[in-house]
Amino acid sequence: MAERPRDTVLSPAGRAAMRELLDADRERTVARAAALRRDWDAVVQSAALVATDDEHDPEGSSTAFERAHIQALLDQARRHLADLDTALERLRDGTYGVCERCGRPIAVERLEARPAAKTCVPCATTQR
Question: What's residue 10's pLDDT?
Answer without folding.
Answer: 83
